[in-house]
# Entry
Amino acid sequence: MFEADSLRDNIARLPEVSEMDVMRHYIALSHKNHFIEKGLYPLGSCTMKYNPKVHEHLVRHTCFANLHPYQHEDTLQGALELLYELQQDLAEISGMAQVTLQPVAGAQGEFTGIKIIDAYHKAKGNTHKNKIIIPDSAHGTNPATCSLVGFEVVELKSNPDGRCDIARLREIVDENTAGFMLTNPNTLGLFENQIEEIAEIIHSVDALIYMDGANLNALLGIVQPGKIGFDVMHFNLHKTFSTPHGGGGPGCGPVGVVEKLVPFLPVPMIARNQSGYYLDYNHEDTSIGKVHSFYGNFAIQVRAYIYIKMLGAAGLRRVSENAILNANYLMALLKPYYHIQHEEYCMHEFVMDGTKQKKEQGISALDIAKRLLDKGYHAPTIYFPLIIPEAMMVEPTETESLDSMNAFAQAMIEIAKECNESPETLHEAPLCTPVRRVDDVRAVKVLDPIYQIKD
Ligand SMILES: *Cc1c(COP(=O)(O)O)cnc(C)c1O
# Structure
């Protein structure tokens, strides 16, 4: 087969490395990054919590891993049963009538939900409805979603207490209002406690209320959004129901709706009759259509299913109770050292800020976040929500122990002291990481890492 003249005369001098060296090389590389198994990951709004290893074990089982989406329904009964039950469980958790599992991210869930609101109005001939009201504390994906679907976004300023300004809401609502989009708990970590009033105002003009439920970590077993006035909501399975996430996925953003919006849900739904489980295209003519191929992100759905079944109703409620307790505990420890605008009890996260350090020593939230990397932690979410200057949004989650939270608080307190004693350390941080301060703007714009290093 080989031409003799194309063979080498001598064996190629390729570098040889032992298995041990290769292994150590990759383990060392992996430790240059931060991950939940390495330490607390207080990235507010992102819910970086323990991902049970049993999920990973089971989802790789050949019964799940070897399925093919083109298989006939008859051969997929077990998988369809799992999806059907997950739809039911999420409907029960949220108090919604029906849930679709198709969207593969929180943002895509928002898109699906707002498309449903759009379809509802079109079906009623409400063609003048072109505006959606969103509080200024909203997650950035909310206004982006509304624009993408073709709505005009009207901003609602927050009250001094960090919640919706109801008087202002009454002023800006009109016949053109199609909907209202609310994150609950909001991005300040506060429960929006005026839902019934908001619902009355919004429903009085036949508009609908969307709940961004990405942060359901605080409400499990405590509040059913579908029972207190919300019409549509999305879940972030990859946050609340625990899946390794970040860096762009994979995710799953199911959407739940009240009864009157069921006809607009994406097709197919997973349904059941006497002969078993099947893909239901019954409401195809009113549906907004498909929003993702096949079943969505099946492997994430399997993980969420296991999580829900392992914890049960009482366990899910304990998740939220402990998430709230942990956040309040940390807030109490850090309050003497960092300014906190909304000091009342928080939900599963809280927002402190660096305004005191900024004013007194010229140290920014970014400096503090970078210094935290030196202490072996991931940084909190910073400069978000936008309405808090020098914001640092902390979400410990329910899976951190008392010891690990005390250690994190200790690191934050040490940093507060360093701000007074050696402010220059803060400006130069991080000092101990493999890469020092990167050019954030370039890192986003220049995607070729080799190019970045050469420069
Ligand atoms: C994370 C998050 C989203 C977006 O979810 P993705 O899965 O990242 O698209 C939307 N709203 C809130 C409040 C969130 O925390």
About this structure: The first strand starts at residue 98 and ends at 100. Residues 56-310 form a domain with the Aspartate Aminotransferase; domain 2 fold (CATH 3.40.640.10).
